[in-house]
Write a structure and sequence with these properties.
Elements: E1 2-12, E2 14-15, E3 18-25, E4 31-34, E5 37-39, H1 46-58, E6 60-77, E7 85-101, E8 111-118, H2 129-140
């Protein structure tokens, strides 16, 4: 079985009663809101990753202010004429504050739109689960950095 690990860093940026989100475009063209962030380059520090990714996707310069938690996601797949695969994503989630830059959309990337959304409107958005996990970590600040939404003890 082919195994693959992807490490990424994401930011929860809250300003007043709004959260900054980026709209991710899946390979099939489906669009869903997500936390700004993305994959870590080999040798890159996770803090540098989140700062770089937020700027790429939103135009904002940010400063991480707290490590909120780490989330792990796992997917299995079957590929045509290949062995089954086992993919794991390790997602490092930071709280961050905007320190400069200007809101803009990413071009030629994995997202196509960046916007502030009222926290109360988030449940109505078409979004990936990472948004809910990040906001849960931001609100609850669990000591071990695991969201109640993914904690097996809450299953």
């Amino acid at each position: 079985m082919q195994q693959e690990l992807r490490v990424a860093a994401y930011a929860v940026c809250v300003r007043g009663d709004e959260v900054l989100l980026a709209r991710w475009v899946a390979k099939d063209g489906v669009r869903r809101w997500t936390l700004p962030g993305g994959g870590m380059d080999h040798g890159e520090d996770p803090v540098d990753t989140v700062v770089r990714e937020v700027e790429e996707e939103t135009g904002y310069l940010t400063e991480p202010t707290a490590l909120l938690g780490i989330d792990s996601i796992r997917r299995s797949w079957l590929r045509r004429r290949r062995a089954p695969g086992d993919w794991q994503g390790l997602r490092i989630i930071y709280e961050a504050q905007v320190t400069g830059g200007a809101l803009r959309n990413e071009t030629d990337g994995s997202t196509d739109l960046a916007a502030w959304h009222p926290l109360g409107a988030v449940p109505c958005l078409t979004r990936v689960q990472l948004v809910d996990i990040g906001l849960d970590l931001w609100r609850a600040r669990p000591p071990v950095g695991r969201s109640r939404l993914t904690d097996p003890a809450n299953g």
